[in-house]
Amino acid sequence: MKQLIISLGRQVGSGGHKIAEALAERFSLPLYDKNLIAELAAQRELDPETLRKYEEAPRNPYLSRSIRGLSNSAEAGLAGMQFLFLREKAAKGDSFVILGRCSGYILREFPGLISLFIRGDLVDRVASIQQAHHLTQDEALEFIRKGDKRRAAYHNEHCPTQWGHGDTYDLTINSSRLGLSGTTDFLEDYIRRRIAAEP
């Protein structure tokens, strides 16, 4: 089988993580999400709980500085480790699903990459977050606002492309239109058509 790398960016509460899990299962691929931290920690003999504090986070400008392009930021250091891990996996010819982590840009030179972005209507995202985290509507809105802001800042710090912008991805889809199952079906069909269209 040709190399297949499915990269998914997602808005908070859009169901992107569940869709990534479903696509990984349907294509029999490993999924790299938060588990990537555990692999990095094991490789480098680091504490995974310490690393998780800096997961998909932009650097704190008040606690970090750069000299000649080198940063003392823990957030930037972890991002660099994750990017290197993904590039090494891709360079070996591995196929996988990756959630976030600037993967659509970091792995752009690999022809097997398919980059997707999952968004959703705010009312559905709020309901999803309320149910998942047992929050009030206002608390869920704040959770979404902070989460999206963090993801956008992280992406925009490491990539010249804009997080969530249509030009950044092969396909952007609103999961509210077809629901999570229907969106997954649609994306599976799209990916299989992309595979079939490869020379």
Would you mind describing this structure in some detail?
The chain is α/β, with parallel strands linked by helices. 53% of the residues lie in helices and 14% in strands. It has helices spanning 16-26, 35-44, 48-52, 74-91, 103-106, 122-133, 137-158, 175-197, and strands at 5-10, 31-32, 66-67, 70-71, 96-99, 113-119, 171-174. The strands form two sheets. The chain has a five-stranded parallel beta sheet with strand order 2-5-1-6-7, with helices on one face. A two-stranded antiparallel sheet has the order 3-4. α1 runs parallel beside α8 (175-197) and α6 (122-133) crosses α7. Residues 61-72 have low confidence and may be disordered.
In short:
This protein is of the alpha/beta class.
Q: Look at the helices and sheets and give the structural class.
A: alpha/beta
Q: Into which percentage range does the β-strand content fall?
A: 5-15%
| Low-pLDDT segments | 61-72
Order of helices and strands: EHEHHEEHEHEHHEH
Question: Which features does this protein show?
Answer:
single chain; 199 residues; two-stranded antiparallel sheet; 8 helices; 7 strands
Fold topology:
Layout: E1 5-10, H1 16-26, E2 31-32, H2 35-44, H3 48-52, E3 66-67, E4 70-71, H4 74-91, E5 96-99, H5 103-106, E6 113-119, H6 122-133, H7 137-158, E7 171-174, H8 175-197
Parallel strand pairs: 1-5, 1-6, 2-5, 6-7
Antiparallel strand pairs: 3-4
Helix pairs in contact: 1-8, 6-7
